[in-house]
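Project standup — Tuesday

K.O.: blocked on the structure for the chain from last sprint. Re-posting the sequence here as requested.
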Amino acid sequence: MPKKAKQLIAILALIFIGILLVTFVLSSFVAKPGETRSRFMALLCCIIAIPLLAWILLFCIQRLRDKHSLSDSSQDFTK
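H.V.: unblocked you, prediction finished:
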């Protein structure tokens, strides 16, 4: 996978995290007192999930590009 694609996915993940942080700060001013904790927990889960999803996306793309077909004579499938 080209280095540019990895950088693009990483930059997009950082942008999404930044957008989440800005929306959290803005929504904390208009939230009712009881809603602040649940919004913080949702933000925390998203901050953890976004890098994980980016890594899974990169991993899947890499595996799909390196996929070998069954017609490859270089592989031995009798093992």
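K.O.: great, moving the ticket to review. The two ends are 30 Å apart (CA to CA). The helical segments are 3-30, 36-65.
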